[in-house]
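Give me structure tokens for this 136-residue protein.
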Amino acid sequence: MIKSPCDLTFGKVDKLCTLCKLTLDEMASLIEPECLKDQKIDREQKDIRYEIIGPMFKEQKIKSFEEILKYIPKSVIADDIEKKGKRFDHLLDHVEEFSIRNLFKIGSLCELTLAETFNLVKAQQVKKKIKIRNKS
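Here you go.
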């Protein structure tokens, strides 16, 4: 895990934060340099719609991970992280299973830091828990 933190899932990183008494932002600052070494993003080939996500996040118009899908089709994101449709749908329903590598890539394409991406994913988890609780 130390050699390849990008292979961890969001759920494992979230648990590590609790065990290490770190915030998601602090953990992201430790992991992001490793992701930068690990992955090169081809910004010239990216879909132009990614460019609106960063500014919208900063204006607080995007508050959870799934809200990115209002602006960028699932198929585009799935292709960019090399996931098939069904697998990507599963990950959207279980965001804790996203690898840090994939979250880093999506965040980078959206011009978000890893910490910002983590915060969107965490908001997605909280939203899902509230929906489940309200159904009960």
